[in-house]
């Protein structure tokens, strides 16, 4: 291959990464729910506990949207899938802002269902398309993309919350819907799939003479390693969601004032975003096994800190635990996207990634089950005691996963 061809592709893929990251910054606003929960309860005259369920509905819709997005992209292409995602995102936020007052059903339907579907469809299409440009640095590209997605709530979420006293929550939500929709549509016309010979250009050591893509013929749901991965991922996601969805409220329960509790939500998002780059770098320099163990260990440490915070009444421990939760949660999708690409190839990457990311549905349900078993979100010590035990299970699960991973790689290379 000529040096000029390689240089041109490298330039285009960096522009693609920058564009995708900017779009995900807006789509990631849906993760600012913890910041919006209290203003939504007040502005829309809704009961706080009922509003809290919106986050879980949104996460489930997110996964469904990712699966639908993979099928829509296959039929009408990247542009069409992202444009539909933009329309759903607009309807989700603008609909919440305009019609949610006094109606929890509208909050669930707009923010939870439409918003979740739109973000899931856009996220899956953008991430899967962009990562295909980086067969040699999938951990790096995943990390940068996830950083943009994670930092959306810190940067734009904080800005949006500060605008609420000036313009009202309904107007701010409508503005978010318009801005996010416009940015996503712009991204739709800038993104495209990489050239067919991208692996030969960027990672010639991975390309065989026949151009065979190892693992592309495997049906993801029929491979045992998926279920071993899911055990780890579901637990890490559940720990992250239990923190992100109730961060501000739990911070105040342990003794932090409301202003710092709001700031902490942004700091957790920062750790979420930074983790996606750090974990991506760890993945590229080690392997999936090491990365899973490190991220799982951070999740276990997070649970230990939060348990200690509520058991002893030490706010600093809660801050440390919440930040670790944000880091662990931010690392999981990086591992998932890199795992999907490395184990199952690029041929069906969008679909495989969406299937693997259904761990978010199961993680959301596990988080809700832990809260129900503990007596509700007002019993955080009991909730995180349950999740703490499960975090040990996630760490132990890395051992059988590693054995199966080694065996699968030997078979693919053989």
Describe this structure in words.
It is built from 15 helices and no strands. The protein has 414 residues and is mainly α. It is globular. The model has no long low-confidence stretch (mean pLDDT 88).
Give a short overview.
About 80% of the residues lie in helices and about 0% in strands.
Main traits of this protein?
15 helices, mainly alpha, single chain, 414 residues, globular
Number of helices: 15
Oligomer state equals: single chain
> Are there runs of 5+ residues with pLDDT below 50, and where?
none
User: What's the rounded overall pLDDT mean?
Assistant: 88
**What's the gyration radius in Å?**
21 Å
**Would you count the extended β strands for me?**
0
Helix content range: over 70%
Could you tell me the strand content as a percent range? under 5%
Distance separating the two termini: 27 Å
């Amino acid at each position: 291959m000529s040096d000029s061809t390689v240089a041109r592709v490298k330039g285009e893929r960096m522009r693609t990464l920058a564009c995708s990251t900017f779009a995900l910054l807006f789509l990631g606003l849906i993760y600012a729910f913890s910041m919006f929960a209290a203003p939504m309860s007040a502005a829309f005259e809704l009961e706080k506990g009922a509003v809290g369920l919106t986050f879980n509905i949104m996460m489930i819709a997110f996964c469904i949207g990712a699966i639908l997005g993979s099928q829509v992209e296959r039929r009408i292409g990247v542009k069409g899938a992202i444009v539909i995602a933009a329309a759903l995102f607009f309807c989700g936020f603008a609909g919440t802002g305009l019609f949610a007052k006094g109606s929890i059903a509208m909050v669930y339907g707009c923010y939870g269902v439409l918003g979740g579907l739109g973000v899931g469809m856009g996220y899956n299409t953008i991430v899967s398309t962009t990562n295909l440009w980086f067969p040699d640095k999938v951990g790096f590209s995943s990390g940068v993309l996830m950083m943009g997605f994670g930092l959306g709530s810190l940067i734009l979420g904080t800005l949006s919350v500060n605008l609420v006293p000036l313009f009202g929550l309904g107007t701010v939500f409508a503005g978010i819907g318009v801005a996010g929709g416009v940015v996503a549509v712009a991204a739709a016309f800038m993104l495209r799939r990489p050239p067919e010979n991208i692996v030969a250009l960027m990672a010639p050591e991975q390309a065989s003479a026949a151009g065979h893509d190892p693992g592309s013929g495997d049906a993801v749901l029929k491979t045992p390693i998926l279920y071993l991965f899911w055990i780890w991922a579901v637990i890490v996601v559940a720990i992250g969601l239990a923190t992100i969805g109730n961060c501000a409220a739990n911070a105040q329960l342990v003794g932090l004032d409301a202003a710092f509790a709001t700031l902490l939500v942004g700091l957790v998002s920062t750790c979420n975003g930074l983790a996606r780059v750090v974990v991506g770098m760890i993945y590229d320099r080690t392997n999936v096994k090491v990365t899973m163990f490190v991220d799982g260990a951070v999740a276990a440490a997070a649970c230990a800190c939060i348990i200690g915070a509520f058991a002893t009444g030490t706010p600093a421990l809660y801050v440390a635990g919440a930040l670790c939760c944000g880091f662990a949660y931010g690392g999981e999708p990086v591992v998932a996207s890199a795992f999907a690409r490395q184990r199952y190839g690029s041929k069906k990457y969008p679909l495989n990634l969406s299937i693997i990311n259904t761990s978010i549905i199961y993680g959301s349900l596990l988080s809700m089950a832990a809260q129900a078993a503990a007596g509700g979100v007002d019993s955080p010590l009991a909730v995180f005691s349950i999740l703490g035990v499960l975090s040990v299970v996630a760490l132990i699960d890395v051992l059988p996963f590693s054995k199966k991973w080694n065996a699968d790689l030997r078979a693919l290379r053989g």
